[in-house]
Design brief:
The protein is an alpha+beta fold. About 25% of the residues lie in helices and about 35% in strands.
Amino acid sequence: MENYTFNKIASDSDIPYQLLLLADETTEAIDRYIFNSDIYLLHDGKEYIAVMALYKNSETELEIKNIAVVESCRGKGIGSILIDKAKEIARENHYKILTVGTSDTGFQQISFYEKNGFIKKEVRKDFFIENYPYPIYENGLQMRDMVLLAHDLTE
């Protein structure tokens, strides 16, 4: 496996919108969380190939607000490397739960998170209808509800 390096950047420095937009629909949506998040970039020795934004929901819960891998690197285990890093960061900072939210139409994402130890926790009805100015489609379906998944870090 290649040598990857993680770099934590200040949330008010050069925000990597081009990477963040691979997983979120608008810069306005990103701006709602990014300035209060820790941003991690994954470098493959040549360029940044992935991003992850972590947000403190409470003293016990850390949330993955954004996780994205450039298209040319997908399907190579990079997403799981990011998830493992998020779990490591969460444990080091004494969080008990790591959460992530995705669209109810994001079948591949839901499956990915479940394979990485997350379980469905709750559904936020009409999240994408109420928080975006226009309909967003994924897999030919309009995104409506957010599925929240959680990983118990105490197990």
